[in-house]
User: What shape does this take?
Amino acid sequence: MNLEEVDYFLQHLQPLQQKGCIEEGLRNITALLDPDRLTRGETGAVLSNILNYTSVIQDCSIDINADGFSEHLFRITSTGVSLREDAIEYLDEETGISASRYRRDINSHADSGREGSVVYELVNLLQEISNTSYTVDSTILISKSEILDIWIAGSSNWSVNPDRLSLQFWFEIENFVGWVDSRDLAEYASEMFSAEEMPVLVYHSNSTETDLNGSEHFPVFALSESPQYLSSRYDSYRNKMSSTRENTSYFHQAPAITPSLFADSPSLRTVFKPAFVYSVFAVFSDRVAVSNSSFLFSAEYGPNTIDRDEVDIEEFSSNLSEDQLADLADLYQEFARREDRAKFVEFWRRSMLQNCDGITDMIDEVADIRKSYQFIESEVIEKNFDELSDAVRDTNAFMTEITSQVSDTTTALSDEIQRLVFALLGAIIANLFLILRWSNFDTVIPFSLFVVSAILLFYFPLIDRRIEELEEMKSKGQEDYETYKDLISSFTGQAFDFGDLEDRKDEYLLYADQRLEWSRRKIRQIHAVLLLTGLMFVFFANYQYQFHSIQVAFSGVFFLSSAYITYRTHTQTDEYSYHKFDLTLSGRGLSDDSDGEADSEEIEISTNYLPLIVSVLSLAAIAIHFAVCYPFGPQG
Assistant: This one.
């Protein structure tokens, strides 16, 4: 079946609707084939359509009933008409109806493909039965899901997967309104509304005076229409339901319903009057629970409290006028502008509690609630401006402080490197003094190895600590900046332009990055020179002097120093950072990622193996020297 055939089929149900022979539920349409209320033509048209369009028929069976007797007379399926033998024999024996002849003629017409004649004989048979003391009961179930599947297949440009929608089909709006009225709020809410699936109503005909207009989050389409603009509606609906569920706690299966389903549609507000009133009361409450057939609303702020206010929502809402519903809808529309902001929801609840002793008082206090909210909002905005001024002033002080910290730390780091260079120059001058003053070359090696070992062991860790301080200052500066940024954003939203501030901060931190790289590079170079110089002195001492000499003894001191540095280099991750070779691009950590995500990532850094090589070669030189002097161990 296509959409046109579905429409044709449903049009032939209209006579049954007009004569009260249609019962409609959420998932099925039940047609009653009552010969007493339908003409022969109407009965024939219905049977003919059922025979032609069996794909939407879930079940079609006709029973005959008498005192103490009930039997299927026939069933219409996709294979045709199936007459029950027991019922035919019973009619033959107990009534004057020639049921066997009907069966023979119907089968004959069916075999010959004369469908019209089959229907004609069935109508005659039913008519004859209805003229006796026997009654005819029909069960004709029409599947709504099949009709919706055909509508989905016949509509194009679905911007939202239909599986993510709560599609509901109604043959007649009058039946839909009657179905809602016949059920309580909790019952139809559980079947029609969910947090994940936006409800979409599709209908075939509307014989009521109500022009059922959909809302943004509860669209209504005629069967002949194609769905439009569902994508943005669906996303907005999910957000509204999320805010509704987050702002209010629902207990004991109290339904979470966003008032936005009905607020901008007067007709939907009228049809779902209890649901609309309940949903507005709920979003203005902290908690909602179910108690028997009533709802309990609770809210509190300071001394103002509404505690478990019990409301029979069906009874209460039935007395509300359209004007009162409209006022409530306008109040919700103002509330909805910021219902995703918990602070503003709190303001609305404070306003409600200041004017209402019970939740139902909202109906008469809409104007005063609105005035109280405006007063609270203006008061808070004024206070926020003061706090914003403080935040901006703190931010300015922070930028000054970060500038000073970068300057002080980089200056201190540069001073340490300068002192290191001066220490090396002092060592060189001292050696020259020893040579020139006393022409004593023997003291050069122990003195030099002592100075080199002392600098490597004690002075380099101090410089490394300065580097770490600058690293910590960078991270702290970035964290502080994000804190102030969030603080200002909480007052101004997206209105404040952080572009200039961000550029200043990145400029300072980039400068710190560059100084760090420069310092590490210089420290590594000096460190390598010292290690290689010490190794050279070790080779020279072991080549030139006796094994039992002070020169060789100090080469052992250098070996121990280099071995200790090797151990620290390969076991400590937060010390001796200048021993590591950072192969990443300079300054990548902060300047390339404003969100600071890259800072938290592990960056693979290659280890410098120079201390290990120097210590091994030093040990080898000493060992070879020992082996040469004592080929088979000490000789005494």
The two ends are 113 Å apart (CA to CA).
